[in-house]
Amino acid sequence: MISPSQVEVDRDKGNFHYETDYSFDAGVGLSEDVIRYISEVKNEDPWVLDFRLKAYETFLKKPMPTHWATEDLKNIDFDIIRYYLAKGQQPSRTWDEVPDDVKNTFERLGIPEQERKFLAGVEAQFDSEAAYSRMKEDLEKEGVIFVGSTEGLKEHPEIFRKWFGKVIPTSDNKFSALNSAVFSGGSFIYIPPGVKLAQPLQAYFRINAENFGQFERTLIIADEGSEVMYMEGCTAPKFETSTLHSAVVELVALKGAKIQYVTVQNWSNNVFNLVTKRALAQEEAEVRWIDCNIGSRLTMKYPGVILRGRKARGEVVSIALANDGQHQDTGAKMVHAADETTSNVVSKSISIGEGRSSYRGLVQMPGHLKGCKNNTECDALLINSNSQTDTYPAITVQGDANSVQHEASVSKVSAEQIFYMQQRGLGEAEAMSLCVNGFVNDLIREFPMEYSVELKRLIDLEMEGSVG
Amino acid sequence: MNSLKIANLQASIEDKSILHGLTLEIPKGEVHAIMGPNGSGKSTLAKVLSGHPDYEVTGGSADLDGENLLGLEPDEISKLGLFLAFQYPMEVPGVSIANFIRAARNSRLDEGEKVKAVDFYKELYEHMDELGMDRKFTSRSLNDGFSGGEKKRCEILQMSMLNPKYCILDETDSGLDIDALRIVSDGVNRMRNPDRGILVITHYQRLLEYIIPDFVHVMVEGKIVRTGGKELALELEERGYDWIKQEAVA
Ligand SMILES: Nc1ncnc2c1ncn2[C@@H]1O[C@H](COP(=O)(O)OP(=O)(O)OP(=O)(O)O)[C@@H](O)[C@H]1O
Ligand SMILES: [Mg+2]
């Protein structure tokens, strides 16, 4: 366990950049050639290239979802993005083998240290590919697989191909199609039946290059009765131009399995973060998305669970913090597809200054099902009057053998409250932090201890940044 | 030097002038009371001294032990040693009393230093006992859903814990029941000492029977128009403010 004093976090922690030579560079802009290039560099099987090319077609056909989402999406210029950058080596199994510039990056981000302290396995992705990937040996012996997407599809097709692109079809949305066309990196994980991981697996996604797009692809399969916690962190340096991060994450929890997926996102303010995350939960399986979104220019992310088996449970716990110039458009999707399935959504958003948060929720409960329950709670905290928050809940329930509860609240931290706290000696930022921490405290407890400390620090730093 | 010294203070809010050249000095060791009609600017004075951002100071000075208060941030003023017990304490959901007072205490220490939890709670419980506050209050959100009287006690609790050099109590007596009035007054009296100056704003002579002031000032339309001993409060209670207003005009 890390004690608070040992953890050094910074809202600006990721704001550095090393000059790096890339052996493989797909150049600027997107075309079929770029996709063939990526597939060739990765030495992929023909079916994968096929999958990519079809996805590219879908991507071109799909419109930008600006009819419901923000117009800011139009500012993404797909023609100036670099879609693949790699040093062209296999992920190392020891940090010593990782090239210095990359190793220094992850050391500054504290990854090797976290690995020593509390992780069962780590994958560290630098731009398009993982630079480091290792898991504790005993887990390997138990049959746990923890590799990158390229290796997963190549070495273990019998396990991964079955579910790849099945939870989130290519055509789900424009960005899932884009990811399917150019994906690289991410984690492919398989937990054999009955294996329960005592420690989390972690992936860290680092964007280093300017004008770059990161498109990792993650697929986690927890076989019957197994348990796993996966944590992801991410940072990028602050560039003048925008950066695109567009991941696809698919989770499959087979009968009685448990998956917890924890995200602590700390993007710089130039990142468009457009991520599709969805899980499939079979009978009596349980999936929890625990999500904290700090930073980025625009985040659009609505983790979902398809409750396919009887008594499956799905949960989304999310914190979003939108500061000046940021828009956090987040939410949750719960698709009930079997009897006695339950889902729980707790979302708390904080908007500061000109920051904007939106909550979009979707709950589907067809009428022929019985004994299903959903509980949705979304609370917004506004700091300074010009902050904006909106909620768009969409609940489709049919039949009366099910129950749905929805609660929403908006509260404000007023200038008078801040003045009152300042009168006792607290600085403006500290007063705001205290209010924000008070607001999200119950959710922060849901994060693993190691991350909750970091989270609180991040919130403090974000508040400091918001007062001039 | 050893006083809270206000000279010819003028202040306005949203272009409306409220304080029109107010002069008042509270030396350490003394208790002063201000009485005055509703809207005369008593709370305004307290907030201006505390650095409230909505008020514009248009003239005069305010010094705490020789240090200029005007233009400082509210937290800087607090750390110089000025405490304001608010007429209407704010509710702060999600922030517990204990955490809040602890943060306030920590803000007075050097960067990186923190009060020891054990010592802190010991002291906090002592003060709560004295004020007749249930210990369960420590984990409740600051003023959130408190009754009027509970809020006022909580102000005095904070005041006792922060050890200020000068205290301004803005109508701390209003909303208190008879027993609470005595308990809160005792709390204030315990803080009375040669190193501390206290300014009590009140409408009721009764409070001044518990907290016996050295001086009573009458404020009308943003100015101190009369100063006397504690008997002035009795006279006001009997005669109201009209005679003073008339004298002030004359
Ligand atoms: N935002 C504002 N805009 C305009 N006038 C204001 C504003 N805030 C306060 N005032 C006015 O300032 C004057 C002084 O108010 P203040 O609260 O200082 O009075 P007070 O002496 O404390 O009264 P009370 O005894 O009722 O507590 C009042 O007339 C009030 O209406
Ligand atoms: Mg008043």
In short:
The complex is a heterodimer of chains A (468) and B (250). Chain A has 468 residues and is α/β, with parallel strands linked by helices. Chain A has eleven helices and 24 strands.
Number of helices of chain A: 11
Distinct ligands: adenosine-5'-triphosphate, magnesium ion
Unreliable segments of 5+ consecutive residues of chain A: 1-9
Give the strand content of chain A.
35-45%
**Major β-sheet profile of chain A:** 12 strands, mixed
Q: Give the full name of the CATH homologous superfamily of one domain in chain B.
A: P-loop containing nucleotide triphosphate hydrolases
Which percent band covers the strand fraction of chain B?
A: 25-35%
What's the number of helices of chain B?
9
Distance between the termini of chain A: 35 Å
Structural class of chain B: alpha/beta
Mean pLDDT of chain B: 94
Radius of gyration of chain B: 18 Å
Helix content of chain B: 25-40%
Uncertain residue segments of chain B: none
- What is the distance, rounded to the nearest whole angstrom, between the alpha carbons of the first and last residues of chain B? 34 Å
Tally of discrete structural domains of chain A: 1
- Mean of residue pLDDT values of chain A: 90
Question: Would you kindly provide a written description of the structure presented here, covering whatever features stand out?
Answer:
The complex is a heterodimer of chains A (468) and B (250). With 468 residues, chain A is of the alpha/beta class. Chain A has one domain (10-421). Chain A has helices at residues 32-41, 46-61, 100-108, 111-118, 137-141, 149-155, 157-160, 174-182, 415-423, 428-444, 449-466; strands spanning 24-25, 85-86, 121-126, 129-135, 145-148, 187-191, 201-206, 213-214, 217-222, 227-235, 243-245, 248-253, 258-267, 271-281, 286-295, 298-301, 304-307, 313-322, 327-336, 342-352, 356-365, 373-383, 388-397, 403-413. In chain A, strands 5, 6, 8, 9, 11, 12, 14, 16, 17, 19, 21 and 23 form a twelve-stranded mixed β-sheet that branches. Chain A has a ten-stranded mixed β-sheet with strand order 4-3-7-10-13-15-18-20-22-24. Chain A has a two-stranded antiparallel ribbon with strand order 1-2. In chain A, helix 1 runs antiparallel to helix 2 (46-61) and helix 10 (428-444) runs antiparallel to helix 11 (449-466). The two termini of chain A are 35 Å apart. The model of chain A is unreliable at 1-9 (pLDDT under 50). Chain B has 250 residues and is α/β, with parallel strands linked by helices. Chain B has a domain at 3-89 and 164-249: Rossmann fold (3-Layer(aba) Sandwich), CATH 3.40.50. Helices cover 36% and strands 29% of the residues of chain B. Chain B is built from nine helices and twelve strands. Chain B has helices at residues 42-49, 74-80, 97-106, 117-130, 148-162, 178-191, 207-210, 231-239, 242-249, and strands spanning 3-13, 16-27, 31-35, 55-64, 67-68, 82-85, 92-96, 141-142, 166-170, 197-201, 215-220, 223-228. A six-stranded mixed β-sheet of chain B has the order 6-9-10-3-11-12, sandwiched between helices. In chain B, strands 2-1-4-5 form a four-stranded antiparallel β-sheet. In chain B, helix 3 (97-106) packs parallel to helix 5 and helix 5 runs parallel beside helix 6 (178-191). Chain B is globular, with a radius of gyration of 18 Å. The two termini of chain B are 34 Å apart. Chain A binds chain B through residues 411, 414-417, 419-428, 430, 434-435, 437-439, 441, and chain B through 50-54, 73-75, 77-79, 83-84, 86, 89-96, 99-101, 103-104, 107-108, 141, 158, 162. Magnesium ion binds at residues 42-43, 87, 170-171 of chain B.
